[in-house]
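Troubleshooting: if your tokenizer reports a length mismatch, compare your output against this known-good record of 309 residues.
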Amino acid sequence: MSKLINLIKSTAIISGTGLAAYSGIELGEKIAHYLPQSYMLPKIAQGFSAFFLGFLANIPLITILGTKKISEIEAYSISALNAFANANNDARKISTEKSLEEISNNLVEVIVDNGNKVTKGSGLMITTDGYVITAHHVIDGMIINGGKAKIKLQNGKSYSVKKENVWYNKNTDVAVIKAAKGMYFSRPIKVKVDQDSKLNRGDEVRILGFRDGQKYNTMGMVTNPSHTWKQDNGNVVYDLFQTDARGKQGQSGGVIANGDGELIGICVYSSTRNGEDIGVIGGAKLSNALTYINQIAAKKSAKMFDYKL
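Known-good structure output:
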């Protein structure tokens, strides 16, 4: 019982600090409008205000909850995960166009080399310190066969992925991985997020990914809001949805957005006939990925305070 109480306390600290830091990012952007657009002053203002509000939030929360001071670097990393997963879209205050632009700019390629075979897929970097959402089967070669994984950005830079920074559930085919990419004050990318995954037949969808130095962006609609997928190895993936958007090679791990620019899912498969696309892409609902992001944040906050789950 004491472990549970301590976990709740530490998570409350991280969440409170994270929401304050996210508000600081918003405040910094407003301040930046009045600053010269040179010498990185807008980014400095954003970082300072995020740090300042996060620091102020940390003081009363520590006093109230009686928890020791948190590590700033790890706190901001966990705060960014919390903000990405839990901030509502009204708080994000971004347009459909801006959300789609941010998704497009943060697409990455996920590459796994197990010595005998190199597999490639897509992913979306959701925080500036390297957390990426992708599909489980994209990084399966690393998990089962001891392969090495790396994340390749659109600018050509690559970052390795350590095995302890891989989280996944093969039954929903979602995965979260972290690149060995450091940033002192992490922040989430500013995108709209569908936290409930309430999908309807006929909803507009957009498939976005990045592979071999090329982005792809195809459109379609939801054809089946509830679906399961039996993989070739016999494993069954649950809680999926189907679209009629055309698939592309390497689309697994890419993301799916709706007509409002909200993230709604992760691409997990495309059906083919005689080697040709027939336009059926299955998506894992984003709500399953958000669940794992919150679990990762909770476990990391517990670890920071030396509590074991």
